[in-house]
Amino acid sequence: TTGFFQAPKQVTDKGTGWFWAWALAIPASSKQVDAAKEFLSWSTSKEYVALVGETKGWVAAPPGTRASTYANPAYTEAAPFAETVLNSILAANPADATRDPVPYTGVQFVAIPEFQGIGNYVGQQVAAALAGQQSVDEALANSQQFAVREMTKAGYIE
Predict the structure, then answer these.
(1) Is residue 113 packed enough to be buried (19+ CB in 10 Å), middle (13-18) or exposed (0-12)?
(2) Contact between 99 and 124 (Cβ < 8 Å)
(3) What is the pTM of this model?
(4) HEC per residue, the chain
(5) Which pLDDT band holds residue 1 (cuts at 50, 70, 90)?
(6) Where are the domains of the chain?
(7) Is the separation of the CB atoms in 107 and 93 below 8 Å?
(8) Which residue from 124, 113, 100 is spatially nearest to 151, judged by alpha carbons?
(9) For residue 21, what pLDDT is reported?
């Protein structure tokens, strides 16, 4: 038997949930704007979710994309995690997501240009630790040093 549940919480009832979104866009330089709009409309439609469910199995339908998916008994029966995912989405509050007040909105993402580069570097450090190329403490120290350096260069830290 497999069960699905929220990650444990320790010091705050706000939990450890993440709230994320698909981000789809059409570049201003696109020469196929109409085709791109048509694709985006189709790839986020109820029909697309149904196509995936019916051809690949309902458990493969993209989770967290449409409220209607969670009202579909075929999906909820095939995806034992569906209720947990839906409850996580409904409980997420990006405006009040942390134990202490913060000057930003969000749970895990910080909307600054440096975020992706810092995230990539930290991911590489974690991978190196998992591969045994360095210790966890080294990965954390390297990541902290890189983040502080990038934040200082960007003017967030004096």
Answers:
(1) exposed
(2) no
(3) 0.61
(4) CCCCCCCCCCCCCCCCCCCCCCCCCCCCCCCCHHHHHHHHHHHCCHHHHHHHHHHHCHHHCCCCCCHHHHCCHHHHHHCCCHHHHHHHHHHCCCCCCCCCCCCCCCCCCCCCCCHHHHHHHHHHHHHHHHCCCCCHHHHHHHHHHHHHHHHHHCCCCC
(5) low
(6) 33-91, 98-158
(7) no
(8) 113
(9) 64
Pair of tokens at residue 139: 């990965």
Distance of CA 44 to the CA centre of its chain: 17
Summarised one tens digit per residue, pLDDT across range 135-148 is: 999 999 999 999 99
The single residue listed with the structure tokens 């209607």 is 68
**Which tokens belong to 86?**
């839906």
Residues 106-135: pLDDT tens digits? 777 777 899 999 999 999 999 999 999 999
Structure tokens at 99: 């134990």
Reduce the secondary structure of 1-34 to three states and give it as a string. Answer: CCCCCCCCCCCCCCCCCCCCCCCCCCCCCCCCHH
